[in-house]
Amino acid sequence: MIQNEQKRFDWLAIGLYLGIVLFGWLNIYAACYDEMHAAVFDFSRQHGKQLIWMGVAFLVAVCVLLIQPRVFSNASYIIYGVVLVLLVATLFIGTVTNGGQSWIDFGAFKFQPSEFAKFATALIVAKYMSAIDIDINRTNTKLVLSALVLIPAGLIFLQHDTGSALVFASFLLPFFREGLSKYILIVGVLAVALFVSALLINKYILIGIILVGCLFYLFVWLSKRNSKSYWHTVIFFIVCSLFVFSVDFTFENILETHQRNRIYVLLGKVEDPTGVGYNVNQAKIAIGSGGLVGKGFLNGTITKADFVPEQETDFIFCTVGEEWGFIGSLLLIAAYVLLLVHLITMAERQRSTFSRFYGYCVASILFFHFFVNVGMVLGLVPVIGIPLPFFSYGGSSLIAFTLLLFIFIRQDADRNALI
User: Fold this and answer.
1) Where are the beta strands (DSSP E) in 51-196?
2) CA 28 to CA 50: how far, in whole Å?
3) DSSP of 293-323, one letter per residue?
4) Which residues 6+ apart lie within 8 Å of 257 measured at CB?
């Protein structure tokens, strides 16, 4: 019976996980390589500590695969509650690291509760969505789901960890898969477009453009007189105008100074290659210097000189680009894309709502981390400081991502029994 159960495990997902983790360790070793501390098992260095975290993560993965899958569904409220308590506790007893109060210390050991909040939230929303007669477009359903997602995101935001808080926006994708109205997505995209436009264009010119668009809609596309359509258009114009004028207040009073500067650099309003834009500028130089096949393992000159801060964590991808070149970077990206596509395929073959929804949460969270991390290294998105899943240095992130993935692999193994 155990052998039959083992055959049901998705070995492609497990294999991709192991490959990314091991390749990640090689690049962590390269990023912090020092000839005076070249020993693989030097536990005073990041690569040695990461070996310990890898061992713990692998043990966690095995334990998860041995647990009955219904346990995670039944315990979702408890897990979510415990994580919320830890997030609140972090606000009072957490230590400050890189400007964020998001770590809890226990002597030589410390962990980051915000990393575990992602899989806890994925469990709780999947549990709620699996209830009978849930209609995601009902107002009370949207309110409950919004609260379940925004409460941990808000607590993390209060820790000044904006990057981790933004990850919770990825839960919109599973909601749309379950039938959430497309108009919410349209409103979200429009809000982002207006926010960026308000930073680049004079407010009155932007409102004029919106007015022209509304008039064009009224007089060109509405061939029949419809009083409701006129009133909807007027309300739309007023709401957009108020939103545009609120951008400055939001930008100046909610975002930190370094976050505002990073957005300005990305939008081209500020040139600061030695200040706020230093990390991205050096990362681009490192990746570009790798060429087609890279300089070779441990031969990265920019990597060795430690020109890129946080090179073993948030900017680990530039090590790949310098030492493994375009081909190595492409293969790593292909591995992530294959994993993400395969996770969606796994999610679609689930017979229970809980497993399907949770699978989409897993894919969405991993995609958000992957896209933003690689994008910020390449200068395509603002630097918000989130790790590359399974790849960046860090015990909390590795264990949390391992839990996130292997709970789904365990659910998938019993997909025919979980109905």
Assistant:
1) 95-97, 100-106, 109-111
2) 8
3) T-S-TT--HHHHTT-STTTTTTTHHHHHHHH
4) none
Cβ-contact 299, 307 below 8 angstroms: no
**Stated pTM of the model:** 0.89
The residues, any chain, with a CB within 8 Å of residue 24's CB and separated by 6 or more, are 316, 388, 390, 391, 392
Sheet containing 95-97: which strands, arranged edge to edge?
95-97, 100-106, 109-111
Complete DSSP assignment for 56-87: HHHHHHHHHHHS-THHHHHTHHHHHHHHHHHH
Within the chain, how many helices (H) and strands (E) appear?
18, 3
Residue type, 81: G
Q: What is the pLDDT of residues 29-75, one digit of tens each?
A: 988 887 777 788 888 888 889 999 999 999 999 999 999 989 999 99
CA-to-CA distance for 188 and 210, rounded, in angstroms? Answer: 16
